[in-house]
Amino acid sequence: MSYTNSYTPTRDLAIPPTYGLDPYDINFVFPLPHTLFENSLIKLTPFIPRIHAEPYLSQITKYPEIYRYYPYQQFTLDEFLPWVEGFIRRDKGNIMFAIIDKTREGEEGALAGTIGLFKTSAEHLTTEIATLIIFPPFQRTHITSQATSLLLRWALDLPSDSPPGLGLRRVQWSTHPGNLASRRAAERLGMKLEGLSRWTFALPIGAEEGKKSREGDPAEVRPGRDNVLYAICWDDWEGGVREVVRGMLIPN
Questions:
Q1: What is the pLDDT of residue 55?
Q2: Phi-psi map region of 137: left, alpha, beta (phi>0 left; psi -120 to 50 alpha)
Q3: 20 to 30 Å CA-CA from 74: which of 14, 114, 129, 156?
């Protein structure tokens, strides 16, 4: 699969040249601003397989425990590229960003992990923060707070704000009930716990964090996973959460 010479524009996104995206088509439902996803500590840039796939996999293979709570297992490069192409790029509601830590490895920074927006709806003005993966050397640093805050500000601020946002009504966060680090991150951001969604995913064979299904289940060898649901809605944002999130952000 080639990502270098197959660019066919599907719509006019006016993507700024500073992203260095050509010839890769991002294919997200909303245009991407070029001034919003960066401050003095980190930069969020769309995940481009030809740029980020190999550095990502080189980190993931060192820390297989990262996928402990996820509904997929360790990828090879040949498995990962079709996943990015099919699950992310071809769905206009999904986008994944590479998180670049600008405080490490000189001017270019270091790949610290990923974060994304999934199930994004321009009609219903909703989205979900997803694919939040922070490599262990970057955990318990500024990475998670800065990346999530930048995305929340863009998602929930109004188009008339400065910098302009999307004016979404709801940003959801879902996680495994046992993933305490993820739950604490959501709570620090001011997200409200909404409940438990049971049997949401079929986990990979052998997953330790899943629930055993009934005898005769068509996927009996794959344990099940529940999801804990959190969300910030526009009225939460206007009611004080915006100030919490802005207080976490480091100025540009």
A1: 93
A2: alpha
A3: 129
* CA angle in degrees (0–180, nearest 5) for 64-111-28: 95
Burial class (CB in 10 A: 0-12, 13-18, 19+), 18: exposed
152 falls within a domain: yes
Q: Do the Cβ atoms of 10 and 25 come closer than 8 Å?
A: yes
Q: Which amino acid is at 242?
A: R
| Distance from C-alpha of 23 to C-alpha of 4, rounded to nearest angstrom | 6
Residue span of the structural domain in which 173 resides: 17-248
* Runs of H (alpha helix) within 26-142: 49-60, 77-83
Confidence at residue 192, expressed as pLDDT on a 0 to 100 scale: 97
Query: Is 10 within the bounds of a domain?
Result: no
What sign results for the dihedral spanned by CA atoms 201, 210, 84, 108? positive
> Contact 70/182 with Cβ under 8 angstroms?
no
Going by C-alpha positions, the residue among 166, 175, 187, 169 that lies closest to residue 37 is 166
For residue 197, pLDDT over 80 is answered with yes
DSSP reduced 3-state for 101:
strand
Q: Which two tokens stand for residue 232?
A: 């910030």
Tokens of 231: 């969300």
More confident residue, 175 or 78: 175
- For position 131, which CATH number holds? 3.40.630.30
- Supply φ then ψ for residue 249, to 5 degrees: -80, 140
DSSP state, residue 88: I
Joined together, the tokens standing for residue 164 give: 């302009």
Contact 127, 155 (CB under 8 A): yes
